[in-house]
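Retro notes (design track)

What went well: tokenization of the new backbones is finally stable.
What didn't: we kept losing track of which sequence belonged to which structure.
Fix going forward: every design gets posted as structure first, then sequence, in one message. First example under the new rule, 299 residues:
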């Protein structure tokens, strides 16, 4: 018998199969063929192959998080020493698949042969330290990409996180990109102009250049917090920028962001907030300047 909970969401025509935390070591073979949403989180499944989803042609969402959590953030009583293995073409026949969550599996790279129907891909808390254009070529229809927490104090990588210059060039539908907690030292170049949300917080970016966001005129949310952090009494390992200097933001850096509604500059060691930053940012609704050095500026 299937060790999972099956529920029917009739209004949305969804058949939801939930196998969360069932101590599974392989994907069950008797999943209903009309399943649309499959959750396999917090198990010990070591591999995914094309046979894993055989006859499950109706899947629109697969949640496969935390089957091999990286050692430091993972459970101490059940350390995973063999990263999740994904065989080529494991997902390619799933022509209705829209959302795929593979966070917390010690993956080394972005899986290949993903179906063109995919709109959301989440790969947080893995061991992906390099993003190449060739890894993203199949993902032209992707709208949401989470790549955070692949290289930070709780999941250290001990290498420099690298992003190829035009890695995101072909992602012509991308709306949300998260690269938080990744040891990134500069804003990635050639970001898709379709972006509405960009999360770059808790990296090691010391300087925001004049042209870093110059093509992002649809951007509504920008989070740059925790770059050049204010480390006094920080409850986590904290490395300030050289000489405790603030995040340097060019006076014209935000000029193109005419649709920006939320700007987060929390913990950037800022001492001044130049009015010039906001010259073209006329739709701003939320500005986070907490945990900076702005006492004199406010006074």
């Amino acid at each position: 018998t299937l060790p999972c909970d099956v529920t029917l969401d009739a209004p949305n025509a969804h058949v939801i199969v939930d196998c969360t935390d069932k101590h599974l070591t392989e994907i069950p073979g008797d999943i209903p063929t009309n399943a649309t949403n499959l959750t396999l989180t917090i198990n010990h499944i070591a591999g995914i192959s094309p046979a894993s989803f055989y006859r499950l042609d109706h899947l629109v969402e697969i949640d496969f998080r935390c089957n091999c959590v990286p050692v430091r953030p993972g459970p101490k009583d059940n350390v995973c020493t063999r990263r999740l293995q994904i065989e080529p073409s494991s997902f390619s026949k799933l022509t209705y698949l829209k959302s795929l969550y593979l966070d917390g599996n010690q993956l080394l790279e972005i899986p290949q042969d993903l179906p063109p129907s995919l709109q959301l891909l989440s790969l947080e808390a893995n061991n992906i330290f390099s993003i190449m254009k060739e890894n993203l070529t199949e993902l032209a229809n992707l709208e949401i990409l989470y790549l955070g927490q692949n290289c930070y104090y709780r999941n250290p990588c001990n290498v420099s996180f690298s992003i190829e210059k035009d890695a995101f060039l072909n992602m012509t539908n991308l709306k949300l990109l998260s690269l938080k907690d990744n040891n990134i030292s500069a804003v990635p170049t050639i970001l898709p102009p379709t972006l509405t949300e960009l999360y770059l917080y808790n990296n090691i970016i010391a300087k925001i250049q004049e042209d870093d966001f110059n093509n992002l005129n649809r951007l509504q949310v920008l989070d740059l917090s925790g770059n050049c952090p204010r480390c006094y009494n920080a409850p986590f390992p904290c490395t300030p920028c050289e000489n405790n200097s603030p995040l340097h933001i060019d006076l014209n850096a935000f000029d193109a962001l005419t649709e920006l509604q939320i700007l987060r500059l929390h913990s950037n060691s800022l001492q001044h907030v130049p009015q010039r930053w906001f010259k073209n940012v006329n739709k701003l609704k939320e500005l986070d300047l907490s945990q900076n050095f702005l006492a004199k500026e406010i006074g």
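Added context from the reviewer: Helices lie at 133-136, 295-298.
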